[in-house]
Amino acid sequence: MPKMDLHSSPLLVLILVTLTSASNLITICNSLPIPLMAPLQSLKQKDATSNSKQSNKSLFTTHYFPQELDHFTFQPKSFNLFYQKYLMNSTHWDKGPVHHGPIFVYTGNEGNIEWFAENTGFMYDIAPKFGALLIFIEHRFYGESLPFGNDSYKNAETLGYLTSTQALADYAILIRSLKQNLSAEASPVVVFGGSYGGMLAAWFRLKYPHMAIGALSSSAPILQFDNITPWSSFYDAVSQDFKDASMNCFEVIKGSWDEIITKGSTTEGLMELSKKFKACQPVQSVWSLRDWIWSSYTYTAMVDYPMPANFLKPLPAFPIQEMCRRIDGFPVGSDKIDMVIAAANVYYNYTGDQKCFQIENASDPHGLDGWGWQACTEMVMPMTITNESMFPPYNFTYEADIISCNSTYGVKPRPHWITTEYGGLRIEQVLKRYASNIIFSNGMLDPWSRGGVLKSISSSIIALVTEKGAHHLDLRFATKEDPDWLIQQRNQEIAIIQGWIDQYYQDLKDIS
Fold first, then answer.
1. Which of 156, 200, 78 lies closest to 373 in space, CA to CA?
2. What is the secondary structure of 37-58 as a DSSP string?
3. What is the pTM of this model?
């Protein structure tokens, strides 16, 4: 069995989160003086229309901000500029010319910003109530926000500017500029984010409390570092989701891996599997087939929503139950490989419009390539798989991680940097003393929830935990299928945010 590489083919998650995948193992998945910048009205602009089924009207306009390459050194190249994309919706903001209405900012994830804007309907849904301006900022090195253009991923010399601290500084400088250019100095800012974007939202509130009065951090595994969270927690959670749906389903999946590998160990067997899997081209490695099946389980567990959705793929409500229904529908003694392919098709082809699958060398429609670098530098989230899991056992070691990252990027991971920079160890004791106004929301069906904050830390650092919630479900558009518990959760979030804003305006009045 080849060594597992935890850093290729990342996903969000989106993905975090944001969310990343691996080639053989799925892992994943914030007043400063401002520099001279182009006036807002001179920035490039175009209309952008949402593909969301929830809304067929324009959700945002697209803008580009001249952002400095390096916020933390003063070398000549630090002042080089790149254009950072951000999206804006001012439909419900007060008319000005001096604005006082709140600004809601989404701290972008590891992918193109439109993807997240179109799947964060909660912000659009509540904008009329608050009279809020909506801003979605793209993370540097993702989407179109590439500091070195097509050479941005060239090597460690260029990728070295891809860090969470640089991203948070980008957000701070862009927000500061917008408030100045839009005559909105009195407008309170609330940051929102899901998965990795949720981590950034929480960290932004901690690092730049003078820039944002509060943060909604959804499905943010900020405790998935060092030894804070058990390393097996992610895959334990995925396995439990399937076990809860059907014990037979769990056992079939658990027993299928050896059969796939054994069958694909010969040229003839691999060709037969390529046909069974409906690969568009003959598959060159059996590990690619295994990973294709593997990915379908982890991503479906993340987006096991109680209503149909099209975040990662078009999926039905409760897609894990649908996967297991297909497996359980086979007669006793059926080929396990046929059974798991049928289950994977729920994720990859629920609509039935795919005639074949690009199992190897698949495209990256959301621009997630940069996450491999982040996972090899600061975003080191150790993961293991136990014998009790439905996945093959796996042991993580820092030594193997160093070898893999050095081979891929020529860098050595800093596995303890995140907790050094943002905290996490003894989080209850620490945040209770110096932090405030953060909502940590998690749904326990989401495997990333185990690395999230699941208990309220103080009266203003609040954990909202839902038993049947999945990956940042609360940030999605409201639908007629929403269960009562989800409606109640969102109402809690609205009430908390309203309290932050009311207190801000009261403080502003008192000072005046």
1. 156
2. ---GGGS-EEEEE---TT--SE
3. 0.89
CA-CA-CA-CA torsion sign (222, 227, 233, 235): positive
Q: Catalytic annotation on 446?
A: yes
7, 63, 471, 472: which is the annotated catalytic residue? 471
CB-neighbour burial class of residue 56 (10 A; exposed 0-12, middle 13-18, buried 19+): exposed
Whether 256 sits among the annotated catalytic residues: the reply is no
For residue 463, what are the contacts with CB-CB under 8 A and spacing of at least 6? Answer: 440, 441, 442, 453, 454, 455, 456, 457
Q: What are phi and psi of 313, to 5 degrees?
A: -145, 160
The catalytic position among 236, 241, 291, 446 is 446
pLDDT in tens, 238-282: 999 999 999 999 999 999 999 999 999 999 999 999 999 999 999
Picking from 424, 320, 341, the residue whose alpha carbon sits closest to that of residue 379 is 424
- For residues 389 and 424, the answer to whether their CB atoms sit within 8 Å is no
Which residues partner with 309 through β-bridges?
315
Using alpha carbons, select from 338, 332, 353 the residue that is nearest to residue 272: 338
> Known catalytic residue: 471?
yes
pLDDT tens track for 91-130? 999 998 999 999 999 999 999 999 999 999 999 999 999 9
Query: Which of 510, 465, 459 is closest to 486 using CA atoms?
Result: 465
Give the single-character DSSP code of 72: S
Phi, psi of 494 (to 5 degrees): -60, -45
DSSP for 120-176, written as a single string: -HHHHHHHHHHT-EEEEEPPTTSTT--TTGGGTTSSHHHHTT--HHHHHHHHHHHHH
The neighbouring-strand residues paired with 134 are 89, 104
Say if residue 335's pLDDT is above 80.
yes
Angle between helices 247-263 and 319-328 (to 10 degrees): 70
Q: Within a 13 Å sphere around the CA of 364, how many CA atoms are in the beta-carbon half?
A: 18
**Encoding tokens for residue 419?**
């907790």
CA distances from 473 to 225, 493, 506 (A): 23, 13, 32
DSSP, collapsed to helix, strand or coil, labels residue 65 as strand
Torsion angle (degrees, nearest 10) of CA 104, 201, 12, 350 = -50
Q: Is 454 helix (H, G, I), strand (E, B) or coil?
A: coil
Terminal alpha carbon distance of the chain: 68
Strand partners, 83: 66
Decide: 328 and 249 in contact? Cβ < 8 Å: yes
Distance of CA 454 to the CA centre of its chain: 18
Q: How many CA atoms lie within 13 A of 111 on its CB side?
A: 29
pLDDT tens sequence across 493-509: 999 999 999 999 999 99
The one catalytic residue in 21, 195, 246, 441 is: 195
Buried b (16+ CB within 10 A) or exposed e, 320-348: bbbbbbbbeeeeeeeebbebbbbbbbbbb
